[in-house]
Design a protein that fits this description.
The complex is a heterodimer. Chain A is mainly beta. Chain A has strands spanning 5-7, 10-14, 19-24, 32-37, 44-49, 55-58, 61-65, 71-76, 85-92, 99-101, 105-110. The chains are: A mainly beta, B mainly beta.
Chain lengths: 111, 114
């Protein structure tokens, strides 16, 4: 079945550094979503991408929908401690109602 | 939290007992979903609903049933809980199909089956 591969699995960075993570698939996706999950809470939508090549920003976050439709990138600029969490990419696949998730990138920020 | 309430937030139950988890939304969204989240597996779809009384199976539906008698409520039932169903369960909602409308999640129910 369809799978989303996220990398890196985890990152340890210093506060103020920029962060880059990506998500790839062997099959085409027509929508890419990026979520963040804090401990004990549900995933929260950060950015939604619906068009190949699209570049969208949300504050310090920027995400891009790869031109091949098989990948997406999320960048965080000038990281702060509250950026800590797990970041998931997701896209529609399989049955009509299914959103497929990557396994996540765990971000740790050192003050 | 996009107007989504899951109850209970935590539950411990014994193997073989029935369990029902409730999801309540105040957004009047058409689609509702139940996911489970496990280490190493990420988030996986159990069942979803595309309208009142309209439901369909997801990737990991065995051992689970759902019901949606009102737009705002989506129930997940484990008829006879097993230890493999120990997990964190998330309800999600969307206005339309997942390809066009992003999902918004509740804060989860942590279920432990002993």
């Amino acid at each position: 079945g369809q799978q989303l591969n996220q990398s890196p699995q985890s990152m340890f960075i210093q506060e103020g550094e920029d962060v880059s993570m990506n998500c790839t698939s062997s099959s085409i996706f027509n929508t890419w979503l990026w979520y963040k999950q804090d401990p004990g809470e549900g995933p929260v939508l950060l950015i939604a991408l619906y068009k190949a090549g699209e570049l969208t920003s949300n504050g310090r976050l920027t995400a891009q929908f790869g031109i091949t439709r098989k990948d997406s990138f999320l960048n965080i600029s000038a990281s702060i401690p509250s950026d800590v969490g797990i970041y998931f990419c997701a896209g529609p696949g399989g049955s009509q109602g299914n959103l497929i998730f990557g396994k996540g990138t765990k971000l740790s920020v050192k003050p | 939290d996009a107007g989504i309430t899951q109850s209970p937030r935590h539950k411990v139950t014994e193997t073989g007992t029935p369990v029902t988890l409730r999801c309540h939304q105040t957004e009047n969204h058409r689609y509702m979903y139940w996911y489970r989240q496990d280490p190493g597996h990420g988030l996986r779809l159990i069942h979803y609903s595309y309208g009142v009384k309209d439901t369909d199976k997801g990737e990991v539906s065995d051992g689970y049933s759902v019901s949606r008698s009102k737009t705002e409520d989506f129930l997940l039932t484990l008829e006879s809980a097993t230890s493999s169903q120990t997990s964190v369960y998330f309800c999600a909602i969307s206005e339309g199909w997942v390809g066009n409308s992003p999902l918004h999640f509740g804060n989860g129910t942590r279920l432990t089956v002993t």
